[in-house]
Structures are given as structure tokens and as C-alpha cells.
Design brief:
Layout (H helix, E strand, L loop, with lengths): L2 H4 L1 H12 L6 E5 L4 H13 L13 H7 L6 E4 L8 H9 L11 E5 L7 H11 L6 E7 L7 H4 L3 E4 L4 H10 L4 H10 L3 H9 L1 H19 L4 H11 L3 H18 L3 H18 L4 H10 L1
Parallel strand pairs: 1-4, 1-5, 2-3, 3-4
Helix pairs in contact: 3-4, 5-6, 8-9, 11-12, 11-13, 12-15, 13-14, 14-15
Length: 291
Amino acid sequence: MTVAQLQPKIYADFVKILQTERLSHAYLFDGGFASWEIALFITQSQFCSELVENLPCGTCRSCRLITRLEFSDLHVIEPIGQVIKTETIREALRDFSRSGFEGDKQVFIIRQAEKMHPNAANSLLKIMEEPKTNVLIFLLTDDANLILPTIKSRCQQVFFPKNESYLRDFFARSGLLPNQAKILAQLAKDQEEAETLVKSQKVLQQLQHLERFLTVLFNDSKSSFLEVARLVTLFKEKSEQELVFKLLSFLLAEQLPKQMAFAYLERLYLAQKMWKSHVSFQNVLEYMVIS
């Protein structure tokens, strides 16, 4: 697995940017698929001691330390719980005024940037309004709409689409059936999650249970209540129930353009809205079946 394989077009674009020395001071990476890997690749290009046409070698001391997140001039900021606190950003910003330990540059990567507290985002904005040439900032998010417009306006925004073709091949090479590979490729948001899913027999078993549920629903709707009861016992946690809605939507989409599949897809959407409004999981599935 290489960065070039995960995001070939974005990788090629940044190769040109690095080789022509047109790197901006701040980037907003929208989408989780390989955005982290690209950010580390660009970071390596700023400190690599064995550059080849301005591209990092990946093997020198600096490149290895950056890969392991042990490089002193690389600062990674992540949420604590569900928020990036104001003090976390302010503490990081104090480093902006210092010189780098390994060189004259510093790189800041803020993961899940949409979780910055509003005061934290405003603190960051003050620095971005007066960018320094020796500081490079990456904001990584799954939803750029949640980032302050004033911050977005000071970043070069790059959209990272999910490479489902790569993920399907990855799951197929792992021994999954073509249909399973296709569904899990839709489910996984990035390579890291794909690797977790492929090791999880539980997810595959859950997928098989939902396939059985739909088979019964399409062919013997009267028996589907028994399948609802089975699903309720299998999917007890909120996170598991959320997974049910995702997997069922993918599986039903596979059945389109069947009229019945479209009707059930509409009911599934309404059932999920009810579930999010705290109607019980069993009740919303029964609603889907009986409507």
C-alpha cells in the first residue's frame, strides 16, 4: 500500500506542487480517505535529508521519525473525547513563535478539525491571518461544512474521495466474496477501518444475518417479524444498530431498480429517522416491515 495507490490523482497533484515549490501555508483536507497519509508524505518532503526531485525518500532518519510520529517539529493535534479544547490549540500556537528543533520549519496537523471548540478555532484563525513561511498547517476533516468559513477561506481545500475500487480489491484479496467486498468497501471510510473490518468475523456474521433478513422480507413478509426479533437480540448496542441501517441501505441499493427494494429503502430511511428520535430499535424495524 502506497500513497500513490490510495489517492493517485491527489498524489500526482502534490508531486507537481512540491517539484515546482508551490506549496501553500495551510491546507484543508476534506474526506478521510488517505488524507492523513498525504499530510505525512508532504511533511516528510519538508524535512527529508535525501530528497529526490523534491520528493521524500521515506527511509532517512527524518522520514522514519515522521512515520512513527516521533519527529520534534511535527505537531499532531487530536480531539480529547469529542472536542479539541481551546487550551490545546493555544498551547500548540505557542510553538509557532519558536524555531524548529530539526530545521527552520514546523508542521501542524489537526485531525478531526471539525471538533475544534469555537474559541479554539478562533485562536487558530488569528495565526492563519498572518501566515509564517516556516509553518505548514493541515486541517483534516470528514465534513468541511463544519469548519468555520473564515478558516476555510484561508486554506487551500482539497477533497479526498473514497477510493472504493481500491477497497474492493483489498477486500477481495483478503478472501471475501465479491458481494461482501463491495458492501464493506462502501462501509469502510478509510484504509485503517478496512483493515479492522477484514479482521472482524463479527461484521461478516452481521452482514449475513441482514442478508437473511432481506431474503425473508422479500419472499415471506409474514415471517419477517421473527427476523426482527432475531436482529434485536443480535444488535443491542447503539453503534451496532447504526451499522444495521448502513448495511441495510447498501444491501437494498444492490436490489434496485426493483420496485419493492425502493419502497423498503424509503421505509428504512423513515425508520432510521424515528430511531434517531429515540424510538426503540425493535419498533422501527417492525414499522419498516409492517408499513
